[in-house]
């Protein structure tokens, strides 16, 4: 969340929802939907609309069920991000989709072929490798943060990232 006003609104809605305000819960879920959609969309890929929708729905359900367990409402967006990444990876794995992460921002806007080539190579990576590449190389998270989001040890993130980059390079140059 880049906009401080939107962030503050989400935190305020989370506090009210935790106190049992059902209208605030509804507003919170509506407020979080675009944020969750962007996260899930990057992992599920642009062509996996059904999978993305499933991941968004499952994430919002997890928010609804688990909001009371969130100790600090200021941690709302980090907590929701963890849920969204886990659900998106789970849905991709469940559906057996091998769709690329959306990385259209990386190539220059006029270079459609490069964007298509990157999507093609990413589409051949496993969902776990795509997720770790997305979190580290696109989102810019460190290994510890990526490990927390994916629910795996930091060492596993490092090894997956190494393998993902190696496989990506090999496929890219083939």
UniProtKB/TrEMBL annotation:
SUPFAM superfamilies (alphabetical): Sigma2 domain of RNA polymerase sigma factors, Sigma3 and sigma4 domains of RNA polymerase sigma factors
Matching CDD domains: Sigma70_r4 (cd06171)
Species of provenance: Kitasatospora arboriphila
Keywords tagged on the record: Sigma factor, Transcription, Transcription regulation
Residue stretches making up the RNA polymerase sigma factor 70 region 4 type domain: 117-165
InterPro entries, alphabetized: RNA_pol_sigma-70-like (IPR039425), RNA_pol_sigma-70_dom (IPR014284), RNA_pol_sigma70_r4_t2 (IPR013249), RNA_pol_sigma_r2 (IPR013325), RNA_pol_sigma_r3/r4-like (IPR013324), WH-like_DNA-bd_sf (IPR036388)
Family designation: Belongs to the sigma-70 factor family. ECF subfamily.
PANTHER family referenced in this protein's UniProt entry, alphabetically: RNA POLYMERASE ECF-TYPE SIGMA FACTO, RNA POLYMERASE SIGMA FACTOR
Protein name, as recorded: Sigma-70 family RNA polymerase sigma factor
Short name of one Pfam family: Sigma70_r4_2
């Amino acid at each position: 969340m880049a906009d401080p006003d939107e962030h503050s609104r989400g935190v305020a809605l989370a506090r009210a929802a935790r106190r049992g305000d059902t209208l605030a819960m509804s507003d919170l879920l509506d407020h979080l939907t675009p944020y969750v959609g962007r996260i899930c969309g990057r992992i599920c890929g642009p062509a996996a609309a059904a999978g993305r929708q499933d991941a968004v729905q499952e994430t919002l359900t997890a928010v609804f069920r688990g909001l009371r367990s969130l100790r600090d409402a200021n941690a709302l967006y980090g907590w929701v991000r963890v849920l969204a990444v886990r659900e998106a990876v789970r849905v991709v794995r469940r559906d057996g989709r091998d769709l690329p992460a959306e990385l259209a921002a990386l190539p220059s806007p006029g270079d459609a072929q490069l964007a298509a080539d990157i999507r093609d190579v990413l589409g051949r990576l496993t969902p776990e490798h795509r997720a770790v590449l997305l979190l580290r190389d696109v989102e810019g998270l460190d290994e510890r943060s990526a490990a927390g989001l994916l629910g795996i040890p930091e060492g596993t993130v490092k090894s997956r990232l190494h393998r993902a980059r190696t496989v990506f390079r090999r496929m890219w140059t083939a």
